[in-house]
Structures are given as structure tokens and as C-alpha cells.
């Protein structure tokens, strides 16, 4: 385990910014998960949905090939928000500053609509997780994806989560560690919402965290030589890197 997770419990000799865009297997608070650290000051974080021809990527392999054609390496990727049967997002999606799908404030059955739900966004000022109805307060949005429910909001767990719940799935989500550091987490065994939210708040120290999905939860990591194929995906959050000259 690298020193990122020890930041919460003991002094760390290496600055967190020096450990950007890496993943660690973490076992905290009875939850085993792979946690990936992204520093938005130096890592190129992007959202993807379709290629230039309008075809949904669906799989990390397709995104990898697309990036390679554009002289880019796929370093890290994760499914990032719930989607319809046609792979379009259920809620807001902003890619490269352009709104691809609008904010969804409707009420309906399902995890996405378990209010409060929220938006993960990166703006000129850094990463944010906000309750969906407050998204309009953000300015200079570079990327954004809406999902639900909010796991942690200002240090409080979602009010619908129950400690005695028996509903367990593989789950993934995103948390904000500080003004420039994003943590992506995907569990390695089925967990409840309560366990996953507590992992983000009490294990990783995130005051705000958002649920991405369950069951389909997937991770790509070039460093770990890992590329999950559990289902065809909708929006994909990725860290990319320009190919170096030969």
C-alpha cells in the first residue's frame, strides 16, 4: 500500500502530488477496494461517451484504440454515471466544456433518483461534488457527470443508508480528498451502500463522495494491467497521456 492512505493515520514522507494517477488495493473498515488517486493539476482527466462518428465506446478497449489513433495513451478509466439501455447518460454529462446531456432533477424509482443525488464536476477552480439542484452555481465547468445517490455530503452519510442493509453489490464511486485531489474507488467484493459510504468518509477521509454504479462497476489501469469487462458502459471517466516521441 502506498503512502496516500496513511495520510489519514500517520505522517507521510512523500507529497501526495508526487503520487498522482496511481491505484492501490486498500482494506479499510471491512471494505477491500482499489483506490485510484488523481491530481487534477497534473493529470489529464476527461469524460468519454462516443467517438467522432457517434458510436458509443462501451468498452475500455474501444476507448483505448480511439485514443491510440489520436496519439494518446489510456492510463486509467472507470465507468462514471448511470445510463439508459442505449448507453446514453440518465443525467447531466459535460465533455470538454460542452453539455452532451442535460441535468435531470426528476423523481423516479432507482438508485440514480435516490435523493439527494449529485454531480461530480471539474471546473477551473478544481474538482467538486454538489447536490444536483446546486449544479447551476458552478462556473467554468470543464467536465461533469451526474449520478446518485450521494454517498457523503459535507461529512454526512446519505439518510437512506441503513447499517443493517443486506443489499450488497460490487460498487464504484468518486470522492474529493482536497481542492485538487480526486479519489476513484471500486470494491473488490460486494458491499452495502452504508459500508461503501463509510469507507469513503471514515476510511479515505472524503467529506463528499458520489456513487457511480453497482454490478457493472469496472476499472481500467495500465499500471495494474487491469481491464475489467463486466458490461457495456455509458460515460467513462479517464486519465490520458500524450504519446511520447520515439
Descriptive keywords:
246 residues; mainly beta; seven-stranded antiparallel sheet; five-stranded antiparallel sheet
Please, could you describe this protein's structure?
The protein has a seven-stranded antiparallel sheet with strand order 1-2-13-12-14-10-11, covered by helices on one side. A five-stranded antiparallel sheet has the order 3-17-4-15-16, with helices on one face. A five-stranded antiparallel sheet has the order 6-5-9-7-8, with no helix packed on it. It is 9% helix and 39% strand. The chain is globular and about 50 Å long. The longest helix has 11 residues, at 193-203. The protein has two helices and 17 strands.
What does this entry show, briefly?
By secondary structure, the protein is mainly beta. It has helices spanning 60-69, 193-203, and strands at residues 22-28, 31-39, 44-48, 72-79, 93-95, 98-101, 118-123, 126-131, 141-147, 150-153, 156-157, 171-178, 181-187, 208-214, 219-221, 226-227, 236-242.
Amino acid at each position: 500500500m502506498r503512502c496516500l492512505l496513511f495520510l489519514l493515520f500517520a505522517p507521510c514522507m512523500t507529497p501526495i502530488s508526487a503520487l498522482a494517477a496511481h491505484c492501490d488495493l486498500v482494506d479499510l473498515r471491512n471494505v477491500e477496494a482499489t483506490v485510484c488517486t488523481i491530481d487534477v493539476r497534473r493529470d489529464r482527466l476527461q469524460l468519454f461517451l462516443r467517438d467522432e462518428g457517434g458510436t458509443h465506446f462501451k468498452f475500455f478497449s474501444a476507448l483505448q484504440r480511439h485514443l491510440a489513433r489520436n496519439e494518446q495513451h489510456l492510463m486509467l478509466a472507470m465507468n462514471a454515471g448511470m445510463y439508459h439501455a442505449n448507453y446514453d447518460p440518465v443525467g447531466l454529462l459535460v465533455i470538454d466544456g460542452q453539455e452532451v446531456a442535460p441535468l435531470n432533477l426528476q423523481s423516479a424509482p432507482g438508485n440514480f433518483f435516490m435523493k439527494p443525488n449529485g454531480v461530480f464536476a471539474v471546473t477551473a477552480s478544481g474538482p467538486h461534488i454538489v447536490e444536483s439542484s446546486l449544479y447551476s452555481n458552478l462556473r467554468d465547468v470543464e467536465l461533469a457527470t451526474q449520478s446518485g445517490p450521494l454517498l457523503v455530503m459535507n461529512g454526512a452519510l446519505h439518510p437512506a443508508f441503513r447499517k443493517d442493509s443486506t443489499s450488497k453489490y460490487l460498487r464504484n464511486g468518486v470522492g474529493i480528498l482536497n481542492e485538487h485531489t480526486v479519489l476513484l474507488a471500486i470494491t473488490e467484493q460486494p458491499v452495502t451502500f452504508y459500508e461503501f459510504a463509510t469507507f469513503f468518509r471514515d476510511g479515505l477521509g472524503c467529506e463528499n463522495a458520489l456513487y457511480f454504479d453497482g454490478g457493472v462497476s469496472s476499472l481500467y489501469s495500465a499500471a495494474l494491467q487491469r481491464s475489467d469487462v463486466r458490461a457495456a458502459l455509458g460515460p467513462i471517466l479517464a486519465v490520458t497521456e500524450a504519446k511520447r516521441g520515439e
